[in-house]
Amino acid sequence: MANIKQNDIDEIIQHFAELEDPRSTINRQHPLSSVLVIALMAVLAGAAGPTAIAKWAAMKEEFLVKLLDLPRGVPRKDVFRRVLMILKPAAFQACFANWLQSLRDAATAATGVEQPILAIDGKTLRRSHDHKNGLGALHSVSVWASEFGLSLGQVACAEKSNEITAIPELLRLVDIKGAIITIDAMGTQKAIASQIVEGEADYVLALKGNQETLHQAVMGAINKEWENDFADVKASRLQTSETAHGRAETRTYIQMAVPESLPGLKPWKGLKSIGVVVSDCVRNGKKTSEVRYYISSLNVDAKRFAHAVRSHWGIENACHWSLDVTYREDESRIREKHLRENFAWLNRLTLSLLKQHPGRDSLVMKRRSCGWSDDFLLQVLAGSTL
Length: 386
What we know:
Elements: H1 2-14, H2 32-44, H3 50-59, H4 61-67, H5 77-86, H6 89-94, H7 97-111, E1 117-125, E2 138-145, E3 150-157, H8 163-173, E4 180-183, H9 190-198, E5 202-207, H10 212-227, E6 235-244, E7 247-257, E8 273-283, E9 286-296, H11 302-325, H12 337-356, H13 363-372, H14 374-382
Helix pairs in contact: 2-3, 2-12, 3-5, 5-12, 8-9, 13-14
């Protein structure tokens, strides 16, 4: 069993083999790969910053020196802080590309999902600002493979309005071929739609006021056909109902072929269908309704359209909510630019690893178990059941 564990660790260390060590030769008392593997393990076990990483490492020194190349013992806090501060986030994230692809391949084989939903959305770490030094709160855009529970990449940007420039960069980082890309209204841009189609993927993009002309045109086209119960167009409908937590909600999904006469149609590459989702919710006797409109490169199929829309909400429920509740990320006070970006990525990567573990315990309990049990920690890290 020890050999299996060591082989797993050696394989993980290889992901950092081509990462250039940004430290001066004087400061290279601990191998970069060992520093990063310890940081990864510590975050899995509950660490939320360099001090916590160093504290965990000191308590686990006997375990770590048997597993990693640590000729001078475990590093101190300043080592972890310095490394995570000077590593360029893009280079750090690139190290995990092969690892993430292997996790994605395994999840594809396990689930049988051939056309995964890749949801793109932004998140702000509200307490990571440093107004005194002119540093705003970190806002990053990430891509979440909803059916797999995998975070495949992230790009930091100055604020929410900069998502328009961050999304194309993010799409270049991830293999999107064959996937369905879902983005909220901020990312509904002609250039982004073109990039997705050119990447041999499909899109389902939400509409709001930032695309006012298209939004109004889609609303008008759907409402016009609704009056005749969609008798004159190719359309598909699906209705779902669910009751949970004192709330009863009915969702109606309608998707129809895009009219050739739709104003502004031509610049939207691959646009084949438009859709609407009507949500009627009853809670404590009070009824509320919400209507959302979409454009898509998918052919008309309400079941697939509904799956894409619902899966997009998973980035909020399964990713962002977990980061805030399990990792308490929204409370993070890390205020150095690269350090907070690299730590945000460590949070997303370790969340993905926890979600791949087949155990039925909650994420909170799995993370605690990583801190309690070295064997369980290695199981999660290696993606196995040793």
